[in-house]
Automatic annotation (TrEMBL):
Catalytic function, reaction form: L-seryl-[protein] + ATP = O-phospho-L-seryl-[protein] + ADP + H(+); L-threonyl-[protein] + ATP = O-phospho-L-threonyl-[protein] + ADP + H(+)
GO molecular function, one term: protein serine/threonine kinase activity
InterPro entries cross-referenced by the UniProt entry: Kinase-like_dom_sf, Leu-rich_rpt, LRR_dom_sf, Malectin-like_Carb-bd_dom, Prot_kinase_dom, Protein_kinase_ATP_BS, Ser-Thr/Tyr_kinase_cat_dom, Ser/Thr_kinase_AS
Keywords in alphabetical order: ATP-binding, Kinase, Leucine-rich repeat, Membrane, Nucleotide-binding, Phosphoprotein, Receptor, Repeat, Serine/threonine-protein kinase, Signal, Transferase, Transmembrane, Transmembrane helix
One of the record's GO cellular component terms: plasma membrane
Protein name: non-specific serine/threonine protein kinase
Ranges annotated as spanning the membrane: 526-549
N-terminal signal peptide: 1-21
Lineage top rank: taxon: Eukaryota
C-alpha cells in the first residue's frame, strides 16, 4: 500500500498548511540533489523549508534534469533534478556525507528518487542504499518514484548515505532529508537496529493531504488513506491531546492526523489492513516488523470497544481497546514481530460495543540490523584530512574501512570482532600527490604499511611518523622531499623494526641516493653520485671553503700514497673532480676536534688501524662506548672516500651494519664516531683459533656468517639504488659484546645503478686481493655478485680457519685450496681442526656448498645474498638440531 501513497505525494505536490517554518534552527538538512551549480538553494513553497544544492555533500556524480515530459508544474521543484552516478561498475559506492549532526542522536533520514527518464534510456534502475556502514534497503525505482526512509541512531557527528551500484542500472537520487528526532521517540531504533519505513498512514485524510512539517515538527510525512466503499470518515476540528503512552516513550502523531479517522460503513465489519513481508537482503530474508497504531475517540456517542488481532490471533493479550475521547492512545509492538509472508491487522468490535472500531493513524516499519561498526572518528577524520589535502579521487567516500567489501582503494584495514576497524595500510603510490607529507598520517595509529612513493611530495618527512607504534614499512621513493630523515625513524630502521625506503629524493639528506651532480657538470657515463648541499647556506659556504682547501692539500699528497701490501689500487668512490661545493649533510651529531680529544682521552687507546689512520676507543659524556676513526694526514683514504663513508653510514641503517654516531670535520681533522664493537673483527677471532684461545664454536661462527649475510643482503636489496660494499672481508666484519656481527668500512661502497644496467664499470679495481671476483679483476665490471664472491671467501675462511691466501707453498687462494682438497678427499680435510669435530657435518657441507657457489667463476652462477641468507639459516637449523639432540 505504500507505493501508491508515494505516487500521490510525488505527483500531487506537497500540500502542507501555510505555516512559516523557522528552518534555520531546526537542525534539518534538506538537500535537492542535482541542482545546477549556480543555484545555491531555494525555499520550498509548501514546507517553507530551505532546500540546498548537494554540492557540499558529495564530490562525485553528475547533475541531470528530468526529461522534458516530466517537468510539469504539478511536480514539485525538488524532483526536477537528479544526481546520477554513471560509470561505476557493480560494487561501486557513492556517498553523501552529512556533517554537524549530534552524535548518538536519533535521526530520520529520507531519500527520494524520481527517474523521469533523466538519462533518456527509459530504463528504471535497481540499486542499494546504505546508511553509514550498514545496508538500508534496495531501491527498485518505479515510474512513479520511490521514497526511502529510516529512523536510526547516528553514531558520530557525521553520517554517510551511500548508493551502491548492484549491476542493475545507474544509481541516482533526487532528494535527501535528515531530521533530528528525540531519543525517547521510537524506542525500537537504537545503536544496533534501525527502522525502515513501510508506511505511515493518516486514515480519513483526503487523497491530496500529505501532512508533514510544520504540522509534524519532525517532518515525518503522513500519507492519506481512505476508501469510501468500505470506510466512512470521522473528523473533528477540536484539539486532540497527545499523551505519553508508556512512560517516556512517545510518538507524537501530529494534530491534523489525529483529527481524522475511519470506521467501517458496515458496523459489523472489521477494519483490516495487510502488508507483505519483503526480504530486505539475502542476509536478512525475513525482516521483523514493528508498528504503531494511533487512536483517539472523535465521536463519543456510545460504547466503542474492539479487539485487535494479528493474522487472526489476539494481539492485546485478549484485552480490548477503547480510545480516549480527544486524546491519543498509541498501541505498538514492543519487539519486532517475525510472521510468515503476510501481516494482517484486524480491528473487531466486541459484543458489548455499540460503535464500530476506529483508527486514526498507523505506522509500519521493518527492522534492519545496524551492527556493522564504523571506523573510529579519529581515524576517519585523519584519513579524510589526507583525502582533502591531496584531493584523492579513487573511491574515497563513505566509511574508509567498512563494510569490508567497500574499503577504500589503497587502504588496508584490520577488523577485530568487537572493536572498530583500524587502518593498517595506506598505499598512495603514484597517486599524483603534491605538497608536503600530511601530518594527519601520524593520527592513523594502527598504520603498519605506508607507501607514498612516486609522487611529487615536497618538504620534509614529519618526525611524528616515528611515533606510529606499529609501522614496519615506509616508502618515500621518488618524490621531491628535502631536509633530513628524522633520527627517530632511522633509529627504528637500525633496530630492524622498520623498512624505510627513500631513494630518488634528490634533496633529501640521508638519502638512499647520493645527491646527483647538476646535469651540465657531469659528463661521465659512470654513475657517480656526488654530495650536494642541503643544509643551511652558511654552512655550505663554510664547508665549501674548507673543502677547496682540503682538496688542494689532498692533491699534494695523493701521489705519495704508500699502498699497503694487501690492497690493490684504490680509487676513490667520488673520483670526479667536480668543483661544486661538497658538504656533509648528516643527521648525526657533529663533533669538534676538542670534543674528540675528550672522548678518546687524548687518543689514548688504539683499537685498530687501517689505510685511513687509527681507530681509538672512547666514551661519550653519557658513558656510551664508541670507536673513533681518525683520518690521518697520510691516509690512503681520500677525503671523498671518507665523506662517502660518512654519507653512506648516515643513511643506511641495519642491525647488521655498523652504525655511525657522529662525525667530525674540524679544520684539517676528520673523524667518524661509531658504535663500539667490543669483540673486534671476525678476522681476529679466526686467527685466535691458532692459539687455541677462546674459540668460537661452529654454531657461533655460523650465526656470525648469517648476520653478515643479512647486512650485505640489506645493501643489495634494501637500498635504492642497490649498494655494493666492494670490500667484504673478515677484517671488516665486527662483533659486539653479544658476538653479533656487523659489516663495517664503507669507504669503497658504490651505488649500483638500478635502471636495468647489468653492471657498473669502474676505472680501476679496488678492494682486497684474494677477495676480488675474477670478472671484476679482468673486466672492471662490478655487480653485487662481486660482493657475493667476497662473501664466499669469508665463508670458506670461517669453515677452514685458513687465511684467504695460503702459502701452500706458493700463494694460493683459499677458493682454489678448498676445491683442490675436496676433489681428492672428504669434507674433513678442509674443516678447521680446531673445531674438534664439534659440529654437524651436514651443516658444514651445506655451508661449504654455499661458499663454493658464491665463489663460482661466472657471476650468474653465484646465488644472491638472499639465497645465501636462506642457505645459512638452513645450516643453522641443522646445527641447532644436533645441539638439541646432544642436550
Ligand atoms: C512557489 O510558488 C510560486 C507561485 O506559485 C512560483 O512562482 C514559484 O516558482 C514556486 N517556487 C518553487 C520553488 O516551487
Ligand atoms: C537543467 O535545466 C536548467 C534550466 O531549466 C538549465 O539551466 C540546466 O543547465 C539544465 N541542467 C542540465 C544538467 O542539463
Ligand atoms: C523491480 O520491480 C519490478 C516491477 O515491480 C520487478 O519486475 C523486478 O523484478 C524488480 N526487481 C528487483 C531486482 O527487485
Ligand atoms: C476499497 O476497498 C475495496 C474493498 O476492499 C477494494 O476492492 C478497493 O480496491 C478499495 N479501493 C481503494 C481505492 O483502495
Ligand atoms: C522517563 O525519563 C526520566 C528522565 O529521563 C526517567 O527518570 C524515568 O525513569 C523515565 N521513565 C520511564 C518509564 O522510562
Ligand atoms: C456487514 O458485514 C457482515 C459481516 O461481515 C455481513 O454479514 C453483512 O452482510 C454485511 N452487511 C452489508 C449490508 O454489507
Ligand atoms: C486469549 O483467548 C484464547 C481463547 O479465546 C485463549 O486460548 C488464550 O490463551 C488467551 N490468551 C491470553 C494471553 O490470555
Ligand atoms: C460485556 O458486558 C457484560 C455486562 O456488562 C460483561 O459482563 C462482559 O464481561 C462484557 N464483555 C466484554 C467482552 O467486555
Ligand atoms: C611535480 O610538480 C612539478 C611542479 O609543479 C611538475 O612540473 C611535475 O610535472 C610534477 N610531477 C609529477 C610526476 O606530478
Amino acid at each position: 500500500m505504500a507505493a501508491r501513497r508515494w505516487l500521490l505525494l510525488l505527483f500531487v505536490g506537497l500540500a502542507g498548511g501555510g505555516a512559516h517554518g523557522q528552518v534555520d534552527n531546526l537542525g534539518f538538512v534538506s538537500i535537492d540533489c542535482g541542482l545546477p551549480e549556480n543555484v545555491v538553494g531555494y525555499v520550498d513553497n509548501d514546507t517553507k523549508l530551505r532546500y540546498v544544492s548537494d554540492m557540499g555533500f558529495i564530490d562525485t556524480g553528475t547533475n541531470h534534469n528530468l526529461s522534458a515530459e516530466y517537468l510539469k508544474p504539478s511536480i514539485g521543484r525538488i524532483w526536477h533534478t537528479v544526481r546520477s552516478f554513471a560509470g561505476g561498475s557493480a560494487g561501486a559506492r557513492s556517498c553523501y556525507t552529512v556533517r554537524s549532526l549530534v552524535s548518538g542522536l536519533k535521526y530520520l533520514v529520507r531519500a527520494g528518487f524520481i527517474y523521469g527518464n533523466y538519462d533518456g534510456l527509459n530504463r528504471l534502475p535497481v540499486f542499494d542504499l546504505h546508511i553509514g556502514v550498514n545496508y538500508w534497503q534496495t531501491i527498485n525505482v518505479s515510474v512513479a518514484g520511490v521514497m526511502a526512509e529510516i529512523i536510526t541512531v547516528v553514531p558520530g557527528d557525521s553520517m554517510h548515505m551511500c548508493l551502491v551500484n548492484t549491476g542493475s542500472g545507474t544509481p541516482f537520487i533526487s532528494s535527501l532529508d535528515v531530521r533530528p528526532l528525540e531519543n525517547k521517540f521510537y524506542p525500537h531504533a537504537d545503536e544496533s537496529q534501525g527502522l525502515v519505513l513501510v508506511s505511515r498512514t493518516n486514515f480519513g485524510a483526503s487523497d491530496t493531504t500529505f501532512v508533514r512539517y510544520p504540522e509534524d515538527r519532525f517532518d515525518r510525512i503522513w500519507s492519506p488513506w481512505s476508501n469510501s466503499t468500505i470506510w466512512s470518515v470521522i473528523s473533528t476540528t477540536e484539539k486532540v491531546q497527545n499523551s505519553a503512552t508508556n512512560g517516556n516513550d512517545t510518538f507524537e502523531p501530529p494534530l491534523p492526523v489525529m483529527q481524522t479517522a475511519i470506521t467501517p460503513i458496515n458496523s459489523s465489519s472489521p477494519i483490516d489492513f495487510t502488508w507483505d513481508a519483503q526480504a530486505s537482503t539475502t542476509n536478512n530474508p525475513k525482516p521483523g516488523y514493528v508498528w504503531m497504531l494511533h487512536f483517539a475517540e472523535l465521536q463519543p456517542t456510545g460504547v466503542r470497544q474492539f479487539y485487535i488481532s494479528l493474522n487472526g490471533k489476539s494481539w492485546l493479550m485478549n484485552g480490548s481497546c477503547t480510545p480516549n475521547n480527544l486524546s491519543t492512545t498509541t498501541l505498538y509492538s514492543t519487539k519486532p514481530v517475525y510472521a510468515s509472508n503476510q501481516y494482517n491487522i484486524s480491528l473487531d468490535a466486541t459484543v458489548n460495543s455499540t460503535l464500530p472500531p476506529i483508527i486514526n493513524a498507523a505506522e509500519i516499519y521493518s527492522v534492519i540490523p545496524t551492527t556493522n561498526i564504523a571506523t573510529t572518528v579519529q581515524e576517519v577524520s585523519a584519513i579524510s584530512a589526507i583525502r582533502e589535502k591531496y584531493r584523492v579521487k579513487k573511491n574515497w567516500m563513505g566509511d574508509p574501512c567498512a563494510p569490508k567489501n567497500f574499503v577504500w582503494n589503497g587502504l588496508r584495514c584490520s577488523y577485530a570482532a568487537s572493536s572498530p576497524p583500524t587502518v593498517t595500510g595506506l598505499n598512495l603510490s603514484s597517486s599524483g600527490l603534491s605538497g608536503n607529507v600530511s601530518s594527519s598520517l601520524a593520527s592513523l595509529r594502527g598504520l603498519q604499511y605506508l607507501d607514498l612513493s612516486h609522487n611529487n611530495l615536497t618538504g620534509s618527512i614529519p618526525e611524528s611518523l616515528s611515533q606510529l607504534p606499529s609501522l614496519v614499512f615506509l616508502d618515500f621513493t621518488t618524490n621531491q622531499l628535502s631536509g633530513s630523515i628524522p633520527s627517530a625513524l632511522l633509529k627504528r630502521t637500525q633496530d630492524g623494526s622498520l623498512t624505510l625506503k627513500y631513494g630518488n629524493n634528490p634533496n633529501l639528506c640521508g638519502n638512499g641516493n647520493y645527491c646527483q651532480p647538476p646535469k651540465n657538470k657531469s659528463s661521465s657515463k659512470v654513475v657517480v653520485y656526488v654530495l650536494t648541499p642541503i643544509i643551511a647556506v652558511s654552512v655550505i659556504v663554510l664547508l665549501s671553503i674548507m673543502f677547496l682547501c682540503m682538496r688542494r692539500r689532498m692533491q699534494g699528497t695523493t701521489s705519495n700514497h704508500v699502498k699497503s701490501q694487501d690492497e690493490a689500487n684504490i680509487t676513490p668512490l667520488h673520483s670526479q673532480n667536480n668543483n661544486e661545493h661538497d658538504s656533509l649533510c648528516l643527521d648525526n651529531r657533529r663533533f669538534k676536534y676538542d670534543e674528540l680529544v675528550a672522548v678518546t682521552n687524548g687518543f689514548e687507546r688504539v683499537i685498530g688501524r687501517g689505510g685511513f689512520g687509527k681507530v681509538y676507543a672512547g666514551f661519550l659524556e653519557d658513558g656510551t662506548q664508541v670507536a673513533v676513526k681518525l683520518r690521518s694526514e697520510s691516509s690512503d683514504q681520500g677525503v671523498q672516500e671518507f665523506l662517502a663513508e660518512a654519507q653512506t653510514l648516515a643513511k643506511i641503517h641495519h642491525k647488521n651494519l655498523v652504525s655511525l654516531i657522529g662525525y667530525c670535520k674540524d679544520r684539517e681533522y676528520m673523524a667518524l664516531v661509531y658504535e663500539y664493537m667490543s669483540e673486534g673483527a671476525l678476522h681476529e677471532h679466526l686467527r685466535r683459533r691458532e692459539n687455541n684461545a677462546r674459540c668460537l664454536t661452529w654454531r657461533q661462527t655460523l650465526r656470525i656468517a648469517l648476520q653478515s649475510a643479512q647486512g650485505l643482503e640489506y645493501l643489495h636489496k634494501g637500498c635504492n639504488p642497490p649498494l655494493i660494499h666492494r670490500d667484504v672481508k673478515t677484517s671488516n666484519i665486527l662483533l659486539n659484546a653479544n658476538l653479533e656481527a656487523k659489516i663495517a668500512d664503507f669507504g669503497l661502497l658504490k651505488a649500483f645503478n638500478s635502471n636495468g644496467d647489468t653492471h657498473v664499470s669502474t676505472a680501476r679495481v679496488v678492494g682486497t686481493r684474494g677477495y676480488l671476483a675474477p670478472e671484476y679483476l679482468a673486466t672492471f665490471q662490478l655487480t653485487n655478485k662481486s660482493d657475493v664472491f667476497s662473501f664466499g671467501v669469508v665463508l670458506l675462511e670461517i669453515i677452514t680457519g685458513q687465511p684467504h691466501i695460503l702459502n701452500d707453498p706458493e700463494p694460493t687462494s683459499i677458493v682454489q685450496w678448498v676445491r683442490q682438497r675436496l676433489a681428492h678427499g672428504n669434507i674433513e680435510t678442509i674443516v678447521d681442526v680446531r673445531m674438534h669435530n664439534d659440529h654437524d657435518v651436514n651443516s658444514v657441507w651445506k655451508a661449504t656448498e654455499t661458499a663454493l657457489k658464491c665463489t663460482a667463476q661466472l657471476p650468474e652462477q653465484r646465488p644472491t645474498m638472499t639465497d645465501v641468507v636462506l642457505q645459512l639459516q638452513e645450516c643453522l637449523k641443522l646445527e641447532a638440531a644436533r645441539n638439541d639432540v646432544n642436550a
